[in-house]
Design goal:
CATH class of the largest domain: Alpha Beta
Distance between the termini: 52 Å
Helix content: 25-40%
Radius of gyration: 21 Å
Largest sheet: 8 strands, mixed
Number of helices: 10
Length: 363
Amino acid sequence: MADIDVLIIGAGPAGCATALSLAGKRSVLLLDRREGPLVRVGEGLPAAAGRILTDLGVMAGFQTQGHAPCHGQLSRWGGDRLVERDALRDPYGPGWHLDRARFDALLRDEATSRGARLLAPAELAGVVSVDGGWQVQLTGAGAVTARLLVDAGGRTAPLARALGQRPVAEDGLACAWTHLPDNGRHPGMTLIEAEEQGWWYSAPLPGRRRILAFHSDADLAAAREVRDRAGLLARAANIGLMAPLLPAAGVPDDLAGGFTAAHSASLAQPAGPGWFACGDAAGCFDPLSSQGLFNALYTGLVTGQAADRALAGDPAGAMALYLDRLESIRSAYRTHLSAWYGLERRWPNSPFWARRHAKAAPR
């Protein structure tokens, strides 16, 4: 007999959404290699996600956290004109600039308060199929048997890899980022600006900070030049929307920063007999889409529903429905992303933009 019904590898938003979707229906163990949340590049959540948070039963707790509203977006994209998009035009209203550490902690706390067990830090060391489910070896924590497995382990997709799957990268996008002291310009606004070798992003963060991020392909000289903070700030000084955000010369700070993968990727087979992948483990989204966290929550919710249906005796129907929903999401994502990149035509000879236009061209 299995120890638990569902083992979820990864206790981020996708994994916790899966656990919350299963609350009161199945026994769940959440596994994560870190005890607490990571420092994140910065994250926004569209207002439409409120429906998912409500379905997961965490909207009330989310509202008490006081995340800053996103009042709109300023962008310079496809031309030199600055365009403002006010959140009042969104039928769902303003979204949120998240305090990701607090948001992730809320999801973990809600999942465990509703019956999920959390084991962290712990990692997947091995997995084998056994009669009635899976036997999973954990680093430093022995073994556990589960009827069904969920990979919510992010871009690395640890379970899928252990089962012989490999995420397929669809481009070479990378992100250089740093936090800045917020000097009060453009309060509550997200800023996006295209340039010859990529595009820039900035948004408010908790604690009177602001994220500054540059996206380009990892193999291009522009990406190599911004791997250190000094190079990133020097390049930002030449970008119209970003330059006014920079701190005065000589102002010391010890704020976070880094260089990370940001490419689109997907698993050829994001589910199989006895297992599902969700969130970034199933497919990573380009940050330009602003859909990564929304996708994690939605696919986590749907994975929980599929897992419950599979355990109730309809594994084939559960997997077919889940794969169909993922394909619909992926198709819409690719269409919209191609359209957005296709709007920017000012640098036809730039490798960064030429690659994206070639992908969008009809065949």
